[in-house]
Structures are given as structure tokens and as C-alpha cells.
Amino acid sequence: MKNYLKILIIAFALVFYVNTNSFAIVDAGVWGGYLFNGEIEDFSKADLKGGQYGLKAHYNTSLIPLLELGVGAYYQYSMLKYDYSSFDEDVTRQTIGLDANLILGLPIVHPYIRGTYAFWDKLKFGDEDADTEKFKGYGAGLGVELTVFPFIRIFGEYMYDYTDHDFYIKSHSANIGLKLDI
Questions:
Q1: d(CA 182, CA 177)
Q2: What is the pLDDT of residues 41-67, one digit of tens each?
Q3: How far is CA 176 from CA 38, 53, 74, 95, 155, in A?
Q4: CB-hemisphere CA count at 13 Å for 72?
Q5: Neighbour-count burial of 14, counting CB atoms closer than 10 A to its CB (0-12 exposed, 13-18 middle, 19+ buried)
Q6: 124: how many CB neighbours lie within 10 A of its CB?
């Protein structure tokens, strides 16, 4: 019994040590989520909601101990419904851009802030031609990552997004995902 207890203590100590001192040079993540509150300029009573998914990858560096900065790229695809005065229309949005996060490297739980800047944003309402804008969108959010294995984390986040076509679109969404640290 004493040997079992010693092995258990050593195993927990190693996992705790690996989690606090492991550092990933790159990471990649995938997520799915739901845009729960969206607004389109000049349509204050419009209701924009729907699902979305995406992927992101970062190059990471340590600013100071326990604080990691990740800079990379992301892609997001949103399948939304636009409802205004009993008028329904499908909206699709694709975005590619810069993604950055600042992660607090605590053991097991890793809170972070995230920022995005869209290089390319394509928006399509129903059967209309798509409207593409460049360098006119950004986002900000808060999240938390949980280490489930030394190089695998699950995460949940809240994101606020803004994009400017000939009109602006503001949105609030919640995402959950899986991230691999390499």
C-alpha cells in the first residue's frame, strides 16, 4: 500500500510539473459555437443567430513566466439566420485573419484573452452576390482552457465580433473547442 501511495504522489507531481512547465512552440485548435446575439446596422430589431465553426493556429512565446503570447491565423465559417419583421433569410460569413491570445499558464486551468483582425471577410445574404471586404473586421474575447492531457486542452470562450461592409454587423458568440500544443 505504501508503494502504491508513493507512485500515486509521484505521478501527480509529474503531471503537475509537466503542466506548469510545458511550453508549446506552436498550437492548433478547432471549435464550434453559436452566435447568440447579432445586430445589423439600421435594423435594430433584427435578430441574427446561428452556428459557426473554425480553426486557428499560433506561434507561441513566453513574455514572462506564466504568461504566454500566441500569434497566428484563424478561419471561421458562420451559418446564420437573419430575422426582421417576419422576413427570414440565410446569411453565410467566412473570415480569415490574424489571431492572437494571451494565456495565463496556471496548472490545469488557463484563462486567456483573445483578439482577432480580419484580413478577408465574405458575407452572403441568401441568393445575392457575396460582398467581400478586406481589413474591416475585428474581434475580442475571453476564455478558459483546461488541460486534459499534457499537450491537449479543451477550451470555452466568449467572442465579440465587428465587421464593416457597407453596413456594420456586431455579434456575440460562445464557442467550445479542442487545442493541441506541439
A1: 17
A2: 776 666 789 999 999 999 998 878 888
A3: 19, 9, 15, 18, 6
A4: 19
A5: exposed
A6: 15
Q: Against a cut of 0.90, is the pTM above it?
A: no
For the record, the C-alpha cell of 36 comes out as 447568440
Per the CB < 8 A criterion, the answer to whether 2 and 10 are in contact is no
Alpha-carbon Rg of the chain, whole angstroms?
20
Backbone phi, psi, residue 23, to 5°: -140, 125
Terminal-to-terminal C-alpha distance of the chain: 37
pLDDT digits (tens, 9 = 90+) for 114-131: 999 999 999 888 888 778
Q: Distance (Å, rounded) from C-alpha 14 to C-alpha 126?
A: 54
Q: How far apart, in whole angstroms, are the C-alpha atoms of residue 154 and residue 34?
A: 17
Tell me the HSE value of 63 on the side-chain side, using a 13 A CA sphere: 10
